[in-house]
Amino acid sequence: xxxxxxxxxxxxxxxxxxxxxxxxxxxxxxxxxxxxxxxxxxxxxxxxxxxxxxxxxxxxxxxxxxxxxxxxxxxxxxxxxxxxxxxxxxxxxxxxxxxxxxxxxxxxxxxxxxxxxxxxxxxxxxxxxxxxxxxxxxxxxxxxxxxxxxxxxxxxxxxxxxxxxxxxxxxxxxxxxxxxxxxxxxxxxxxxxxxxxxxxxxxxxxxxxxxxxxxxxxxxxxxxxxxxxxxxxxxxxxxxxxxxxxxxxxxxxxxxxxxxxxxxxxxxxxxxxxxxxxxxxxxxxxxxxxxxxxxxxxxxxxxxxxxxxxxxxxxxxxxxxxxxxxxxxxxxxxxxxxxxxxxxxxxxxxxxxxxxxxxxxxxxxxxxxxxxxxxxxxxxxxxxxxxxxxxxxxxxxxxxxxxxxxxxxxxxxxxxxxxxxxxxxxxxxxxxxxxxxxxxxxxxxxxxxxxxxxxxxxxxxxxxxxxxxxxxxxxxxxxxxxxxxxxxxxxxxxxxxxxxxxxxxxxxxxxx
Length: 512
Ligand code: NAD
Hints:
The chain is of the alpha/beta class. The chain is built from 16 helices and 23 strands. The strands form 7 sheets. It has a 7-stranded mixed sheet with strand order 12-15-16-11-10-18-19, with helices on both faces. Strands 7-6-5-8-9 form a 5-stranded parallel sheet, sandwiched between helices. Strand 13 and strand 14 form a beta hairpin. The radius of gyration is 24 Å and the shape is globular. It binds nicotinamide-adenine-dinucleotide.
């Protein structure tokens, strides 16, 4: 339902709040002003004009970062952790400012925008602890008087290319770990989110100054994809960590491979949840609706495919439709609103095209899909999240449409459900709702879900930073955030140390 209880913010009010948040985080709006329009999806209007980085600016950023790396790599990792610790303190102090910028540029409802900033704070905590735990193994040598060990060293300049829908969380997953590992960072944020990026970078600059970190350690470059292409093709950028569409990954992966650079790819998802006949349907309902309609369907982990047992479909699906009818759609700044706008008109058109295709392929729209027009904001794109019953697997279900559409498919056997689940090119996040341990374990086993994230009795979205985050197949295979993802930002050296005074060769080889 449309939010009619509160007044809709004007573009002037949003702009004023953005300028306030920029100043509070240490960005001088005049210093970053230029010609490139920045729009808010809340009203669809221009809220700022930002200066775009030139090729030379980006070249200088990489050169300076490469120079700073030579100092930073020699600073002990726990001391490097102090920079990230200070950054985390400043992020905590400015949580609301950054949250306001995320809402203004992406249209996330306030609690989700604040949640994204909390994710930044959480990863700084993790990274500070990790800075004392860059463990290498020691192995027994086959030769007497020898020791075998591994050490981990930083890579150099890490180029981060980020997507619009998580404008700061994914960047901080990369940057907090890259920095404690001893790297420098050059960041190319998404076209839609330059202001959030400038504010985040300003807080990191303040932290760097407070702890006396070397100048030039981190940079943000404001650009369209051409800036990303420049980082991709710059041999001084040791690791390119890129988050975005499969299309983008398909373009950049061969370019990075051609120069033997390293790539960390976090690409599109097409996430499914299986609901078995034994599931707690109340719990499943809440998990499904948050994952499918939250963030207006604009998460990489958004639930897009519901694979429900035929025996419970008639009990569950009408309840999902009813719950969708209660979701309040409106300005993301207003209390009680759960579904904000799509990022732009293109996104809306993609949703409409996918719904038309679904119907051509035999689908029946059970709920939603209509545009919600806001009187004072004709250029903003609010939509009702859609639920579509599909007769079977079809082309439209194979694709990630970055808008809220939940396709429903039914199944009879768990084997069939798993086959349906895995029959898409992407492999990011998955879930099973069940109260049967054998069903859960089957889904978690090697022959179960083929995704990087496999959940039981919880939806597909809303991961914690402690685990490694990423997906398989067209999602790109990268892992970020917790667990041992830090190793992606380092290179491994194996050391053999001989203290025997002799020179025995391995495998008993005799020579000289
Ligand atoms: P996008 O691919 O259009 O753009 C992402 C970033 O890549 C932007 O900064 C863009 O400028 C840059 N870019 C695009 N083409 C490039 C090229 N050829 N060379 C270098 N840089 C290039 O994606 P988007 O619309 O901003 O974000 C939505 C997509 O991101 C969805 O597919 C979503 O699933 C995915 N995503 C994935 C994850 C994940 O962790 N797997 C997280 C968030 C978003």
